[in-house]
Amino acid sequence: MAAPKKGRNASAQSKPWRSLALILIAIAALTGGMFASGHTTPRLGIDLAGGTSITLRAEAEPGQESAINKTNMDTAVEIMERRVNGLGVSEAEVQTQGDRNIIVNIPRGTDSKEARDQVGTTAKLYFRPVVATELAGGTAPTPSPSASGSASGDAGEKATSSASPSGTPSATATQQGRAVTEALKADPTPSKSADSSASPSASGTPTGDQPSGKLEAQYAALDCTKESVRAKAGDGAKPTESTVACGQNSSGEWQKYILGPAEVDGTDVDEAQAVFNTQTGAGWTVTMKFTGKGSDKFAAITGKLAKNQPPQNQFAIVLDGQVISDPRVSEALTGGSAEISGNFTQQSAQSLANMLSYGALPLTFSEDSVTTVSPALGGEQLKAGLIAGAIGLALVIIYLLVYYRGLSFIAILSLLVSAALTYTIMSLLGPTIGFALNLPAVCGAIVAIGITADSFIVYFERVRDEIREGRSLRPAVERAWPRARRTILVSDFVSFLAAAVLFIVTVGKVQGFAFTLGLTTLLDVVVVFLFTKPLLTLMARTEFFANGHRWSGLDPKRLGAQPPLRRTRRPAAPIETKEA
Asked: CA 157: distance to chain centroid?
């Protein structure tokens, strides 16, 4: 049984180049991916690159402390991300901190005052009637099929309607005392383009009123394909006034709208949630429940809109001035509940439900702190961190050169491999998961230098112990590995466990330290197993190391090696005979 095991070990020992080739291929692939993605440097955090960090604290209305929960906070983060992205800030970070804080990090080059105004206010959700709409390019949208509906007094009978879907296609209402399903169809390409002869009034009633000349001019000049224009569309318009807005349909095309005064606002929505409807086969839908007053308002506006022709029979759901849905009404929707259905995925249905719910959340946010880091200060901190890392690395290298001599060559190459892996992975993590290298993360990388060097030292000392016992280098390298491997794995496991716990229980920038420490600990295991050990196996075959050169770091005389002890036989006692 021992012979096959010995053969496998000999085969593994004779081909260390396989492990070296594997890790070199991995480095080449990561480097290629880094250059291909265009992100050749790690993404820097606010404290190193400069910018503004805003801490917002959630405050609930009296008696509604339960409103501060994970779901509502995540919804608030999603809304704030939409706001800062509307400012053209593509690299802004919005994340929760603890139970009731939200951190907004805005890089330099952005108007911090405008950003603070955007993220610090409560989201505004309104239901506005559509007066006119067309594609942002100025072309008339493709006409959509008309919707039809019917209702019966018998329980269980349903009204049906059909139309081609928009981004948020249709809606249905449930009446008290009977199960009656009404249908709304949202239309990405409404049947009429906007023009100055729009017949409905701003409220959606067919009174023949027309948009004002000023509003028509704003509408004509509105280019919804530009992000900066979309962010400011309808600025300053009060809920009681008509306005212009932009929205995106399911085809990804931008539309512009003239919208009437708000008839229903977000506080009239009591609840909204994404539901998978298996009874009608509609798939993912969004259900809404209104408050008592909201139910009356919604019934009134849908009753008015149902009398109009497209697109004046649509109502727009507007969040922060942007149309997120524009369902079409065929009949008055009473009963206090409605359902929006169409080409939803689970994610898009959940997103719309969150946005509808946010208008009814009893949450406000106040600024807890605002920190602005100038580019000069960020550059100084980055420079200081790099200097500290260089000093630490230099001290480790000097120690290795003095104490381990030739073995330091293996250790330095291993450190360089570890540094290359760390740098490329951090550069790729920026665009993929939003990882930003901040000052605590730099500290974690500096600490990792010592952890990595410690693994080399453990292995080198095990090899030296074997040589002190009188073994030659090649057997010593292989016999020392199992014991050194166990020690390295246990040590790295403890370091990784500490980093994981620190990452879970902390928030903010401290997580950067924990993340970097955990990442570099894992890379330490990879480097020791796939590079350091195979490289030392190859070096043991060279004359410089195998003969124990005085500068190799493995000189048996300097290590105090003793010749192997051998048992001596005692002389046999003479056998006495009778003749003797």
From this structure: 46
